[in-house]
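Example record

One chain of 317 residues, shown exactly as stored in the release files.
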Amino acid sequence: MELYFAPMEGITTCLYRRIHAEMFPGTDRYYAPFLAPDGQGNCRSSSLRDILPENNADIDLVPQILCNRPEAFLRVAGLLADMGYREVNLNVGCPSSTVVPKHKGAGMLLDLNSLDVFLAEVFSRCPLRISVKTRLGMESAAEFPAILEIYNRYPIHQLIIHARDRNGMYKSKPDLAAFAAAYRESRAPVCYNGNLFSPASLQTVLAAAPELNAAMLGRGAVTDPALFRRLRGGAPLCAEELAEFLRRLEAAFLSAGIPEHYALARLKEIWFYTSHMFPDSPKGAKAINKAQSLADYHAAADRLLQNNFSPTAAFSG
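Predicted structure tokens for this chain:
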């Protein structure tokens, strides 16, 4: 089975990807946090730097675009083709309340006629193969048969299905029955995404779709950077590995010229997930979140890393 690392905005940057790939090999592909072009197809320079090939050496990376205007999408796709990329991923899954009202991300599912027109335009002119990351619907998975009818009209390279509707955000239980039905009816190869936190959770998905050969991990992989290894039958993460991983991330942030307070904010965001591996130490996680300097952070993190570490603890949202 192929295992992919989902794009996590603000976390899975090129610095994170490089160190993760070095310390925890076994990820088949990484997806970059989305590029969000304006109406003319212009992207932030920081977002473009993140996906430069020289910043992602020896990593199989797929850039992602969050966009609902064909011309803007095609302009960015052209830039990516010039960089040497062969695939681009269209984001039709982001459930954020700052994205959906603009009819982007999962908001593209609000108007299926517009989605169809968009796909017809980009598939007819895009120089790259296109994969799509989607939700099952806006309010209900019952919407997905009509959505899939549109997807099936186009040569989608891979359909990555987050097995929730938009209203479920990241809280509702994935709808495995709806996913299995979509898997059977999709003309494109399908990848599963949603609540993969352990080998047992992957086995639950495979029970619903036994022939599935691709899965994407997001929050589970940030919580446990060794999860890809565990899914392949390898050893669980140890506290020493986690400490080294976080030390290397911090050093990379600072070496890249990221100011201390921004580096601290990034580390706190990662700890929001990894702290779930210390289920008996909620005060330790709070101390990290309250840290006002890297010195405070080091003291709090060192204390927490000496507490009861549970490499198989589940992320609870």
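Notes: Strands lie at 2-5, 29-31, 61-62, 64-65, 87-92, 129-135, 159-162, 190-193, 214-217.
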